Every structure is written in C-alpha cells, then in structure tokens.
Amino acid sequence: MKYFILFGITTIVFFSIDILWLGVIAKNFYREKLGFILSNEVNWAAAIVFYLIYIAGILYLAVVPALLEAEWEKALLNGAILGFLCYATYDLTNMATIARWPLQIVIIDIVWGTVLTGSVSVLSYLLAEKFMQWN
User: Which of 56, 59, 62, 111 could form a disulfide with 79 if both were Cys (CB 3.0 to 4.6 A apart)?
Assistant: First the structure.
C-alpha cells in the first residue's frame, strides 16, 4: 500500500512542477520552436501511459532506493541521471530523425528533464520521509 501512496505523492509533485513549466514558463517556447510539427490536439492516452511509466521509473530507480538507504542525495543524483538519459534519448533521437528539430530545444529540454526528474525524486523522497514510515 505504501508504494501506491508514494506513487500518488510522486505524481502530484511531478505534475505540479511540469505543469508550471509546460503551461506557464515555456508555454509559447515549444509552440514557437516546434509549431511545424506539433499536433493541435494532445493524444491523452499516449500522454497518460508515458507519465505512468516515467513516474514508475522515477520511483524504481531513484526514490525507493534512496528511501531504503535513507540517502536524499541518492534520490537527487539518480533522478537527475534518469532525467538526463530519458530526455537526451528523446531529443537527440528526434534531432536525428526529424527535419529541422532545433538544437535549442535539445539543450533546453535535456536540462529541463535533468532538473525536473532530480527535483521530483528528491521532493518525493523528502515527503515520504516526513509523512510515511520506511524500513
């Protein structure tokens, strides 16, 4: 049961940060740079599946190992590495296969993925430590 609660906590943290980025800070940036390829409608099924898989990965690779060892630094580092690897894979593959995929998007997105996933991991760790019992 505690893993479902942790999944819920991590989901709330992830969406709180990512919505701020996508909906406010970088709202026009992506449309401006990728308007030539963006759909007018979001494929919500694909988005939800991605988020479920990605949040499960954050838990498995960063948050839970850090909680088991009581090391917030591990959550931060593993989360940042995961974010870097995932966002680099996405952006560099797009750059390799999609005409005119902007280098600026690649750089900003990889930095964002690293910061986002590291932040979500450490914040989820800290919330779980504070409000849940581990070990």
Answer: 62
